[in-house]
Amino acid sequence: MSKREALIIAAYEAIAREGFEGLRLRAVAAQAGIDHSTLHHYFGTKQDLVDAVVGHVTDQVRTGASADGSREERLCRHLGMVGAAIAERPELHIVLRELDLRSLRDPRTRATVAAHEEGWRSSLTGFARGEVELVIATVKGASLHPEQAPAVLKDLCQLLRGGRPCTF
Amino acid sequence: MSKREALIIAAYEAIAREGFEGLRLRAVAAQAGIDHSTLHHYFGTKQDLVDAVVGHVTDQVRTGASADGSREERLCRHLGMVGAAIAERPELHIVLRELDLRSLRDPRTRATVAAHEEGWRSSLTGFARGEVELVIATVKGASLHPEQAPAVLKDLCQLLRGGRPCTF
DNA sequence: CACACTCCACCAAGTGGTTGGTTGAGGATG
DNA sequence: CATCCTCAACCAACCACTTGGTGGAGTGTG
């Protein structure tokens, strides 16, 4: 792993642990085993580093959504995967929630978050717009309680399938 | 409004505007029209001020939930009121989301958030635990898009009522 | 040599918090 | 009435420390 990657990972972990509130360049650099001034060799400003973290997160959440199956099958698959992802990698979804809030103030982050949501929408074609928004809202809220997320999303899936249990 | 209240309001608005990331005692004091050292006359530490803001928020979100009607009627009323609250006072729910994230690191905030959720649960008696968790998750997620929140919650309500439209 | 990389020392601008002191209202005391 | 005292409210100046960021000098490598 290059130093640059190490810095991004360190920043990512710091955000998950302390939030943007507690993101300190010196701490990130120390975590990566270098002096904080060396960090500036890789990232000119703090914002540059944050942007890189945003990119890193974007890479992580690329859903391997395929267009196969009926819309209900795709829904089951989608929610099943997202629920598992939240349970298995809660720190990723903490960072996503931090980014959601940050996107209210930072246009750059907002664009990334919007693109991320767009990805969800495109993997839920065939559903009514309202249903899609409901799914997005619930996924975001569910990531607050990682241990309950899979069950919550399963329940939502079942409701959207008119009562038939989610098959994923 | 006393200076003390003014400081709490100023801090609350600062958190809604800049997040905890951007909360600065000098800015809060200036907003309240006093010197930052005077702020310390009212709140010994930054954490004391934050605690006061948490209390203020708690007061704001007391739901006027009544136990009247069937569980479905209560659900409609509850989601209708929450949806309207999110749309009308988005800044309140931004602060709540900031607190949700902060509660991961601050036990005191965590206790408050937990109590808040408990209030929701008690106003949804009669529903299965999974359904209650689904409602909580969706409400939290929905507050990210205040303008869509009422519609999203209406959709959820309808699903939970087996397809019959929400009456609130 | 040129170049990427690294650290040390440093800086200006804050940060939360403290100190010492002023003001003015209110309550006793004479 | 005048005088003294108390106390909350308030501020200017200051403190120790941290912050993001810079400059320069040294290192190794192609």
Helix content of chain A: over 70%
Oligomer: homodimer
Give the overall form of chain A. Answer: elongated
In total, the number of strands of chain A is: 0
**Biggest pleated-sheet summary of chain A:** none
Largest interface: A-B, 37 and 37 residues
How do you describe this structure in short?
The structure is a homodimer of 168-residue chains. With 168 residues, chain A is mostly helical.
Account of the protein in words:
The structure is a homodimer of 168-residue chains. With 168 residues, chain A is an all-alpha fold. The first copy, chain A, is built from nine helices and no strands. Chain A has helices at residues 3-18, 25-31, 36-42, 46-60, 71-88, 90-102, 107-122, 129-142, 149-160. Chain A is elongated and about 55 Å long. The A-B interface holds A 17-22, 94, 97-98, 100-102, 104-105, 130-131, 133-134, 136-142, 144-145, 148-149, 151-152, 155-156, 159-160, 162-163 and B 17-22, 94, 97-98, 100-102, 104-105, 130-131, 133-134, 136-142, 144-145, 148-149, 151-152, 155-156, 159-160, 162-163. The structure holds a DNA duplex (30 and 30 nucleotides).
Properties at a glance:
9 helices; 168 residues; homodimer; mainly alpha; 70% helix; DNA-binding
Note the topology.
The structure is a homodimer of 168-residue chains.
Chain A: H1 3-18, H2 25-31, H3 36-42, H4 46-60, H5 71-88, H6 90-102, H7 107-122, H8 129-142, H9 149-160
Chain B binds a DNA duplex (30 and 30 nucleotides) through residues 3, 24-26, 34-38, 40-42, 44-46.
